[in-house]
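Appendix B.2, paired examples.
Example (i):
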Amino acid sequence: MNIKTNSDIFNHMVNHYEDNLNDIFHALADSTRREMVQMMAERERTVSELAEPFDMSLAGISKHLKVLERANLVERSINGRTHICRLNTESLSQATKWLQFYERFWNNRFDLLESELMKAKKNEN
């Protein structure tokens, strides 16, 4: 019998979260995919609309979309022969939360540095 403990469940959740973040940042590492995400942030788009600004085949665009879908950044629905893509803001918010943690970390560090520089300046006078 295989019994899962709370730490096993927690580790699984952390690993899944980290894997998803890896997929998200991998997907966003490409400028074409970032531009596609930006286009979908305005409104949902068809695959043809997403392909329009790029000098790329529909097959190439489809490969980019698959990377975005694997990262759960894009949801695709099919209406007849038309594929409609929309941004999944939940996955994007995971990346934002991760980045905000480090933004707070660095802001705190810069505040400490500023404080030390002010003390040093005060001691000079």
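Example (ii):
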Amino acid sequence: MRRVEVCSYNEKWSNMFSEEAEKLKRIFRNEIVDIYHIGSTAVPGLKAKPIIDIMPVVNDINMIDTFIPNMQEIGYESKGENGISGRRYFQKGGDNRSHHIHIYQVGSDEIKRHLVFRDYLRNHPNEKKAYGELKEKLAQQFSYDIESYISGKDCHVKDIELKALEWYKTFGAN
């Protein structure tokens, strides 16, 4: 059974992203338009589950399935769209996950949503602190129940997303 763990920010997460991004660039070559570090491990100072979320943006999402064997060679398991239409999702590490890959095609609204959320938290220390404390509390409360952990933070995440989109309209991404 997978344990829900939230820990203090780790400076190594940025390097872990960079190392994995290089591997992905070698696999997807010209298909990659850009690649981003997203999620809580991309926000310095934010408490997080120690799983690196990576978002490659590609020219053609339908081409990604041809790369599944290459992804398996470096330890990833394909999960298809995994509940989000137009996404390809991969996990690495089984029950001891280390990386999640969320691949979207250029133009997907999901790209902006992820980047604005990340950038908003980077620029709003009080929001970042409150979100980290909530995640830590939920991880303690639901140590072996990832669904309840996710459900417990859902309203807070949606609230941050709304604030982030308003902030983005006013100030733009940094």
